[in-house]
Each structure stands twice: as C-alpha cells, then as structure tokens.
Amino acid sequence: MNIEKIALSKNSVGRTPKIAVIKFGASVLSEIEDIPKAVHEVYYYLRRGYKVLVVISAIGDTTDQLNYAAQIVMDDETGVPLTEEFAELLATGETNAACLFTISLDRVGIAAKKIHHQCLTTQGSILNATPKSLDKDIIFRLFARYSVLVLPGSIGCNTDKHTTLLGRGGSDFTALFIASRLKADICVFYKDTDGIYDRDPNTEKDVARRYALLNYTDAFKIPEGVIQHKALKFAQAKQIPFCVKSLVNTYATLVSSQPSSFSSIKNRHRHKLRVVLCGLGTVGLGIYKHLINHHELFEVVGVVVNDLEKNTRHQLPDGLISNDWKAVLARGCHVVIELIGGIEIPEAIIKRSLIQGCHVITANKALIAEKGLALSELAAQNKVQLLYSAAVGGAIPILENLRHLKNSTQTSQITSITAVLNGTCNFVLDKVNEGKTIQDAVHLAKILGFAESDPDYDLNGLDAQQKTHLISRIAFGKDPDNLEVAGIQHLNEQIIRSAKKKGKVIRLVASCELEKNDRVRAKISPIELDLTHPLAQVSGEENSILVHTANDKVIQWRGKGAGRWPTAESVFADLLDLSLCLRDQPPLSDRIRNFDTVAEEA
After folding, report:
1. Alpha-carbon span 254 to 245, nearest angstrom
2. pTM assigned to the model
3. CA angle at residue 38 from 34 to 42, to 5 degrees?
4. Looking at the domain assignment, is residue 65 inside a domain?
5. Are residues 329 and 182 located together in one domain of the fold?
6. How many helices (H) and strands (E) does the chain have?
7. Does residue 10 carry a pLDDT above 70?
8. CA dist., res. 465 & res. 370, Å (int)
9. How far apart are CA 344 and CA 383, in angstroms?
C-alpha cells in the first residue's frame, strides 16, 4: 500500500461514534484492591468499540477520613474550616483515586489519561457547587490519543479557578452532566447491587423486586442513598437515560422516561465455572491471579504445565498442578484456557476440549492463524465457543472491535487497515536511534521481556504476518489473497538512523486492503513515517491500528500489545464474557458428555 494511502489529514481521526460514561462509587471501590475489578468493566466497553470516560469517587471512606482530619487540626467541633483549603483537602481523595485508577489501566496496557477537574466549570458555593460547562474540545482531543479518560467525580473549578466540591452525590451529577454534554451513547452507575429494588434486597431478599425499568418520577420515591435527587432531577430535565448495575453482571436497572416495570428474572444462584488453565508462564500466572481474585465466579480445577519442578515455586494448592493434560481434562470443566504456546500440543488440547464440550480461550496466534478455521468449525459442531481475542493486540481489543465495526449498521464498509503490530520491532528501532547497535537492542529487548529467546520470529515479520491473517478474516471474511512480508532483520544502523536525520522514523507496518475485485491485498514491510503520523508515535510494546472506511473515516486504537497484564486482560475478558453468557449454567454433570465417549471420539 502506498505511504500516502496511510497518511492522515489533521482532522481525519475525530469524534468517536460511541462514548460510554461510567461512574464508580465508593460502594464498589471500598479498597484499593477493588480497582482491578473495575478495570475489567472498563475493558468490557472498549471491546465493544466505545471510548470510555470514567467518573470516579474517592475510595472507601477516604472522604470521611479527610473530613475527620480537618476537625482534628481545628480542635473545635463547632468551627468551620477555611472554605477553599477544605475543598482542596477533600478533593485530594478523588484525585488520588483517579490517579491510581489510571495507573491500573496503564498496567494492563490500556491507553488512559487522568484529566484535570478544571475541564469542568461549576457555579454556586465552593462546597456545594453544580456543573456549569465542560471543555469538550479537550475531551475530544484527548480521545484522539487515549481510549479511556479518568475524571475525579465530585470536584470542579469555578470561574475564579478555585477548586469546588459538588456535595453529596456529586459524582452522579458529574457523570450525567458529562454524558449530556458529550451526547454519550450510554451512562452507567456501578453500585454494590445489580440494580434498583423496591425495598432493601439485603434485609428483605425474598420479597425485594428489582426494577428492569424505572421511571424518573418513581425513582424519587427510592431512598436517596441509591440515587441522589439533585442528579436525578438533572437527568429528568435533560431526559438522560442511565443504568444502575453491579460489577460483572448483565442485570441492571434502566432509569428513563419509560414506565416502570419489574424484572421477571430472579437473581438465581450463579454456578461457578470450572476452569482448566494450561500454561503457567508470564501470562498464565497473571490469569491464575485473576481467577483467584474472582473466586466467587470461577473454580480452578487444574493447571497444566510442562515442567512440574520448575513451577513448584508458585506454591499452588496440592494436587492442582499436573504435566498430564489428558488427566486434568478428565476432571471435567466448563472452560479450558490454553497458554502453552506452540502448535502440536495446544492443538491436541484444544481439539479434545472442544469435543468434550468445553469452551476454549487461547492467545496462541500461531495456532489460530494456521488451524483456526478448522478449530472454529469443530467448536461450532460441538456448540461451544473458541475465543482468541488476545492473539492480536494484547490489551487493544482489535479483533473484538473489528467484529463490532463490521456488524454495525452505522459503520460504512471497512476498506483498508494499517497497523503496527509488533512491539519488539518498535523497541529495537527506537534503541538503535538512541545509539545502540541492533545486536545490543535485541539483547536488551530479551532482558525486558519484549522479545523471545529467538527474536527472529518478531524481526522477520512472521509475528505480524500471523496477526494480519487474523485481522483480515474478521475485517474482510477471508485470508489475504496476496501477502508480501519483509521484516526489519535486513536493516542496519545506518539505514535506521538516516530516517531519523530526515525527521522520520521507521516502523514495521502491516496493511490490508480490499480491492475492487473483492481480493484482499496485504503487505508487511518497514516504512519511513513522518514523526507526526499516528503509527510513528508508538514505542516499546505498544501497537496501533488505523481502520479506514468507505466514507473516508479513520478509526484508531492504540495500547500495549504484549506483556503479562495486557495479554492477561484480554484473555480474562474473553472468560468474563463467557461467564456472563453462562451465568445460569447448569451443574457440570448436566451438561458435559461422558468422558469415556469423548476420549473415543478424540
């Protein structure tokens, strides 16, 4: 593809078609350890093509502690703290929460930015202000670079540039105000219940009824602790629908102008999904930690490794770990997560699992590129799912977003895709520009975990080639008819640095284009890009993809494409999606066929 074809005009990456505004309150972020669970929810929306603006409250009782601290230093229960300084003090709770949340997003590879509360202008008193205006230009400019923006919920800034507080329930108000100003597609409040009930579901569990739909007027009859009335009044005045739900749950209450109605679905007991984990390396260990942290949803019934002695240091429960994958699968499970790598053994594991009636999740791009079509057909025959979102892009949900784009009635046809899909090459090229030799840059990439022990797989373009096949299948429904591959292994230091002298940078660019005869032409090669080009701005383990549509729009996704936590986040997102689909899964004995029969078929 010609370089001009992938160049972007100044305004070509603009307002995303879908925005989700989601708010996390102290009831779901009662402690710092709850943040990763909320990050999974953010990733849920990213996988469905949304840009996400997170409105976050202070963690747990932080605000109460800060209030108490002010009273201690005053040593006078009847006194009133200095207004401006008191507002600044309480604001630190939400500011710290927003920073911690953004750091957690970055850890899993999501391109995120904490935005300053000065973008929200307020009016009224310093300690009980209301939103007045939002700097939308800043928001949309940042959305062109970041997938997620994080804003402290109950603080703003008045016209004198003083920090202001929005009072009790202020973060609800902020979320609704921002959703209104950005014309967001959805607005969601996360609480510690799976919706709004007509009475306390904790004390009257047997008779409490959950609203599926709740009219604004009826919502005012609910105790104010669930939804603050000043926020509700704004939602009603602006006709902003919003959902109230809990983490990792499909059930919710939609508050809108529609007539109220109760859900006919009872909150039935949720059976744990039995999971077999194959592989306990860098990513596998991350997945194991996620599974343990969600013990209410998943039961790990076995862990398969190649070397038992090597993995004793992880101190897993007795009897859980084994090097006999057939014996572990015989224990029976709902889901098999394959993270061993390679072709032959993973293929055997996946085939046996699918025939046994187990869903399979893998990050094995080499296997899926070579055998994926046949394995997907086998999964369909056995009425189970084969999921492999992590095979491309790490924390960037490339395959999921492509599916949603392709199936969206509001999106024009995808015509071409250009992407940087290999972080090892980025790292090596950047280090050479900093003065290192190629050999030293590759060695450092190995030490930092950006390259395998044999880096040829990355440098010769094979890794990008396999990912390009998977992207083409989703975007265009077929493998490329013609795929030219050239890696960076033949470049030398002089070639790489000469690009820098010209104000450019070399990146290994993968491109796919749908031609007029419905053939797909693809190419992978090192290309000189202007420093201002979006694909030139990735570094290290970052990946970036530009999707071009028939109406000349360009959609960009960017984030970390490798590493334990980015890949683990993508794998675990597949598992959480399965969990939501199978939340009323019957006991294992009612579903899985007799293993002896399965063994014969395999």
Report:
1. 9
2. 0.88
3. 165
4. yes
5. no
6. 20, 25
7. no
8. 11
9. 23
198/252 same-domain check: yes
How buried is 549 (Cβ within 10 angstroms: 0-12 exposed, 13-18 middle, 19+ buried)? Answer: middle
Position 267 in a domain? no
- Find the catalytic residue in 467, 500, 516, 560: 467
Worst-scoring range by mean pLDDT, 158-167, 325-334, 533-542, 575-584? Answer: 575-584
pLDDT category at 316 given cuts 50, 70, 90 is confident
DSSP state of 310: G
For 459-495, what is each residue's pLDDT tens digit? 999 999 999 999 999 999 999 999 999 999 999 999 9
Reduced to 3 states (helix: H, G, I; strand: E, B; else coil), residue 564 is helix
Q: Are residues 155 and 31 in the same domain?
A: yes
Query: Within a domain: residue 180?
Result: yes
d(Cα 236, Cα 499) in Å, to the nearest integer? 57
Backbone angles phi, psi at 420, to 5 degrees: -110, 115
Distance CA 40, CA 46 (A): 10
Domain count, the chain: 3
Q: Are 112 and 150 in contact (CB under 8 A)?
A: yes
- In this predicted model, what pLDDT tens digit does every residue of 149-178 receive, in sequence order? 999 999 999 998 899 999 888 999 999 999
Length of the chain: 602
Residue 599 to residue 579: CA distance in whole angstroms: 26
Please classify residue 152 by burial: count the beta carbons closer than 10 Å to its beta carbon, then call 0-12 exposed, 13-18 middle and 19+ buried: buried
| 472 Ramachandran zone, left/alpha/beta (phi>0; psi -120 to 50) | alpha
Non-local (6+) Cβ contacts of 516 within 8 A are none
**Could you tell me the CATH number of the domain that includes residue 153?**
3.40.1160.10
Question: Quick one: which H or E segment has residue 133?
Answer: strand 129-134
Angle, helix 229-238 to helix 170-182, in steps of 10 degrees: 20
321-322 sheet: strands from edge to edge: 321-322, 298-304, 273-278, 335-338, 359-362, 386-387
Say if residue 123's pLDDT is above 90: yes
**Would you say 578 and 385 are in contact if contact means Cβ atoms under 8 Å apart?**
yes
Catalytic-residue membership of 467:
yes
Strand partners, 263: none
Q: Which amino acid would we find at residue 445? A: A
CA distance 187 to 177: 10
> Exposure string (b/e) for 10-27, b if CB count within 10 Å is 16 or more?
eebbeebebbbbbbbbbb
Q: What is the b/e burial string over 33-60, where b = at least 16 CB atoms within 10 angstroms of the residue's CB?
A: ebbbbbbbbbbbbbbebbbbbbbbbbbb
Provide DSSP, 198-243: SS-TTTSTTT--BEEEEEHHHHTTS-TTTS-HHHHHHHHHHT--EE
CATH number, domain with residue 576? 3.40.50.720
Q: How far apart are the C-alpha atoms of 566 and 572, rounded to whole Å?
A: 10
Find the radius of gyration of the CA atoms of the chain.
26
Q: Collapse the DSSP code of 541 into the 3-class scheme (helix H, G, I; strand E, B; otherwise coil) and give the result.
A: coil
The mean predicted confidence, pLDDT, of the chain is 88
Query: What range does the domain containing 107 cover?
Result: 20-262
Picking from 106, 112, 96, 241, the residue whose alpha carbon sits closest to that of residue 155 is 96
